[in-house]
Write a structure and sequence with these properties.
This protein has a domain of 87 residues: 2-Layer Sandwich (Alpha-Beta Plaits). Helix content is 34%, strand content 17%. The chain is built from 6 helices and 5 strands, in the order αααβαβββαβα. It has a 5-stranded antiparallel beta sheet, with helices on one face.
Length: 170
C-alpha cells in the first residue's frame, strides 16, 4: 500500500461509479439472498420515498436478551432514554463505553416484558454480550449468527426459509 490519499485513489479510477459497478471481483453476495424481489428500481425508490421491509438475517447478527434485569442493563449501556419504551416498539440502540465512546448501533426490539432482540453488526452485539456475561445483571443472551457465518447446512435451511416466505411478485 502506498501513501496515497483516498482522493488520489479515487482520481486514479476516473469514473468511480463505473468502477464500482464493473468490478471484476463481483458483488458481495450473501448465500440465499435474492438480488431483488420485484425490481431493483422500484425497491430503491421504495426505501427513499415510502417504506421498505428488510430481511436482515443474511448480514446482521441477532441477539435475544431476556431476564428480569434486561431492561435495566440495556438502558445502562445506552446514552438515549428508555422513558416510554414499551413492548411492541423498536428503537435505535447505540451503546457507549463508560467514557462515552460509541461502540456501534443496532435496532433494539422490545418484544415483551423482559424480552428484547437486537439486530445489527457483530461488534455492538459482542459489547452487549460482554456486559451480560460480566456485569451484575440477571440476564440471559442467545446469539443467532448472520447467514454467512453459519455452517453450510444451516445456510441452506436459512435460504430455503427465506425463499419460501418471500412475498409474491406483483
Amino acid at each position: 500500500m502506498t501513501g496515497q490519499t483516498l482522493q488520489q485513489l479515487l482520481d486514479e479510477k476516473g469514473d468511480i461509479v463505473e468502477f464500482l459497478r464493473n468490478q471484476q471481483t463481483g458483488p458481495n453476495v450473501y448465500p440465499g439472498v435474492p438480488g431483488e424481489y420485484s425490481n431493483w428500481r422500484d425497491e430503491q425508490r421504495a426505501w427513499a420515498e415510502t417504506a421498505v421491509l428488510f430481511n436482515q438475517s443474511f448480514h446482521m447478527v441477532d441477539l435475544l436478551v431476556t431476564g428480569p434485569d434486561a431492561f435495566e442493563m440495556l438502558s445502562y449501556l445506552a446514552p438515549n432514554s428508555f422513558k416510554g419504551f414499551k413492548p411492541n416498539r423498536a428503537k435505535q440502540f447505540a451503546p457507549v463505553t463508560p467514557e462515552g465512546y460509541v461502540i456501534g448501533d443496532v435496532i433494539l426490539f422490545y418484544l415483551e416484558e423482559e424480552t428484547f432482540e437486537l439486530v445489527g453488526r457483530a461488534p455492538t452485539i459482542e459489547w452487549v454480550e460482554y456486559w451480560a456475561q460480566t456485569g451484575k445483571w440477571n440476564v440471559k443472551v442467545e446469539r443467532d449468527e448472520r447467514t454467512a457465518a453459519r455452517p453450510a447446512d444451516q445456510q441452506a435451511t436459512a435460504a430455503t426459509t427465506a425463499s419460501s416466505s418471500r412475498a409474491p411478485t406483483p
